[in-house]
């Protein structure tokens, strides 16, 4: 790694740095968790799908499998969580709904949807989805419903006064995703029972 | 000419990039490259790429592979050309991104060395006019670029196209698998199709038999992770 890399976040499984990289500013995400199965390999397909679905995500610059590092675009923007907390521009619900709809339409499950993982680009106000560290590919309505449920939980705990906004997100999601009916039905089930599946027998 | 230093590979020195237009002896250069003429230890690239940044990404990848001793091709120069490609077919990569007999605009990359020396050597090698890399956009062929990188025809913003290109270079994939990211090769993606069908099947059964199914799935060793 370069000497100019600056540590900006230290987590349990990864460190995040900013660094100058090939004429641009970039983010480095370094994984060091040991139980990390197929570090980056199986993320490749996810990355491709996401681009095809035209969900705005940080551009991947370089994947260093030897050192478990991913180099990606540094996004000049604001975290949706902060925007909501500052009571600003709450009209983002539709954008969020559309982004999740597009993501799910190519069977990508984000796995950690929270308002901290959503950014708003300064340049064109586009909604950027970040951190696909827990993502996986699945076509099961169940998994997509849980994805929505995770966002709802995050929403209610960080922004208790913005229940309407989550309803708007769901509305946009339903409108922009043909197969959403089944998923929203599942979502209702998931809401009743929580994230974990019932285990009977 | 442009000179770049690569943050991750300071030991490798400076990397020089030249652009030549109106080149007349591409077929001769190509012939010499094919016979592994050591005088031509440069990467020769067809100039119909979109942006210098695209090239920088490829060079960075090539330097990385060299450092980790995992070069997929003969040397650092061919590795640069190879890394411009979004997939792992070496032959196709060299054909598409290297120079061909009728190339008139070419990019030359030299890793290390002294700029002026390289320049005078290149002017003796290449019958063409050296021009600023700012002219690169004039030689880009958007139609071909979109085809090579499988960019959706609806996408027309150059910046967005560049992002897609860079992303697909970074996640260079084996030609197989994913029917969604690789629609043209869907027929080769049977394993993914199989998985998808399997997961749909499981979902259907789960819906019909509910919780009993979970017991059954455990018995049969089938679970969501094998299907997902």
Q: Characterize the quaternary organization of these chains.
A: heterodimer
Number of domains of chain B: 1
Q: Given the structure, what is the number of helices of chain B? A: 11
Secondary-structure-derived class of chain B: alpha+beta
**Ranges of chain A with pLDDT <50 over ≥5 residues?**
none
Query: What does the largest sheet of chain B look like?
Result: 5 strands, antiparallel
CATH class of chain B: Alpha Beta
Strand order of the largest sheet of chain A: 1-2-3-5-4
First CA to last CA of chain A: what distance? Answer: 51 Å
Rg calculated over all Cα atoms of chain A? 17 Å
How many distinct helices of chain A? 6
Named CATH topology of chain B: PF0523-like
Q: What would you report as the Rg of chain B, rounded to the nearest angstrom?
A: 23 Å
Distance between the termini of chain B: 50 Å
Range of helix content of chain A: 25-40%
Mean pLDDT of chain A: 86
CATH homologous superfamily label of chain B: CGI121/TPRKB
CATH architecture of chain B: 2-Layer Sandwich
Question: Taking all residues together, what is the mean pLDDT of chain B?
Answer: 83
Walk me through this protein's architecture.
The complex is a heterodimer of chains A (201) and B (228). Chain A has 201 residues and is an alpha+beta fold. Chain A has 6 helices and 10 strands. Chain A has a 5-stranded antiparallel beta sheet with strand order 1-2-3-5-4, with no helix packed on it. A 3-stranded antiparallel beta sheet of chain A has the order 6-8-9. In chain A, a hairpin with a 4-residue loop joins strand 4 and strand 5 (69-73). Chain B has one domain (2-219): CGI121/TPRKB (PF0523-like). Chain B contains 11 helices and 5 strands; from the N terminus they run E-E-H-E-H-H-H-E-H-E-H-H-H-H-H-H. Chain B has helices at residues 26-34, 52-67, 76-82, 90-97, 115-125, 136-139, 142-148, 158-170, 190-209, 211-219, 224-227; strands at 2-5, 14-21, 43-46, 106-111, 129-131. In chain B, strands 1, 2, 3, 4 and 5 form a 5-stranded antiparallel beta sheet that branches. Chain B is globular. The interface between A and B is large, with 42 and 40 residues. Chain B: Belongs to the CGI121/TPRKB family.
């Amino acid at each position: 790694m370069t000497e100019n890399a600056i540590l900006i976040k230290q987590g349990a499984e990864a460190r995040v740095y900013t660094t100058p990289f090939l004429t641009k500013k970039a983010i480095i995400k370094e994984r060091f968790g040991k139980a990390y199965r197929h570090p980056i390999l199986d993320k490749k397909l996810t990355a491709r799908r996401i681009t095809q679905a035209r969900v705005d995500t940080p551009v991947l610059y370089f994947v260093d499998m030897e050192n478990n590092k991913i180099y990606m675009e540094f996004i000049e923007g604001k975290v949706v969580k902060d925007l909501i907390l500052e009571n600003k521009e709450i009209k983002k619900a539709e954008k969020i709904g559309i982004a999740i709809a597009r993501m799910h339409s190519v069977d990508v499950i984000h796995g950690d949807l929270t308002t901290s993982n959503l950014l708003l680009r300064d340049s064109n106000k586009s909604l950027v989805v970040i951190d696909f560290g827990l993502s996986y590919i699945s076509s099961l309505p169940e998994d997509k419903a849980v994805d929505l449920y995770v966002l709802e939980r995050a929403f209610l705990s960080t922004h208790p006064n913005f229940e309407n906004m989550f309803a708007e997100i769901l509305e946009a999601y339903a409108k922009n995703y043909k197969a959403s009916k089944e998923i929203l039905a599942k979502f209702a089930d998931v809401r009743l029972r929580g994230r974990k599946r019932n285990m009977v027998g | 000419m442009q000179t770049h230093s690569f943050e991750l590979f300071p030991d490798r020195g400076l990397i020089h990039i030249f652009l030549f237009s109106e080149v007349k002896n591409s077929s001769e250069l190509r012939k010499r490259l094919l016979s592994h003429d050591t005088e031509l230890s440069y990467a020769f690239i067809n100039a119909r790429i979109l942006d210098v940044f695209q090239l920088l990404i490829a060079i960075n990848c090539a330097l990385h592979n060299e450092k980790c001793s995992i070069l997929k091709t003969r040397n650092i120069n061919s590795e640069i050309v190879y890394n411009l490609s979004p997939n792992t077919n070496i032959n196709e990569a060299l054909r598409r991104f290297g120079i061909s007999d009728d190339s008139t605009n070419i990019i030359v990359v030299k890793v290390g060395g002294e700029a002026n020396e390289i320049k005078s050597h290149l002017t003796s090698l290449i019958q063409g006019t050296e021009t600023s890399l700012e002219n690169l956009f004039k030689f880009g062929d958007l139609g071909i670029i979109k085809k090579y990188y499988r960019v959706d025809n609806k996408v027309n913003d150059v910046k967005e196209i560049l992002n897609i290109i860079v992303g697909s270079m970074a996640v260079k994939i084996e030609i197989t698998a994913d029917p969604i990211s690789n629609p043209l090769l869907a027929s080769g993606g049977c394993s993914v199709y199989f998985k998808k069908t399997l997961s749909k099947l499981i979902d259907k059964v789960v819906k019909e038999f509910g919780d009993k199914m979970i017991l059954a799935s455990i018995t049969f060793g089938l679970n969501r992770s094998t299907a997902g």
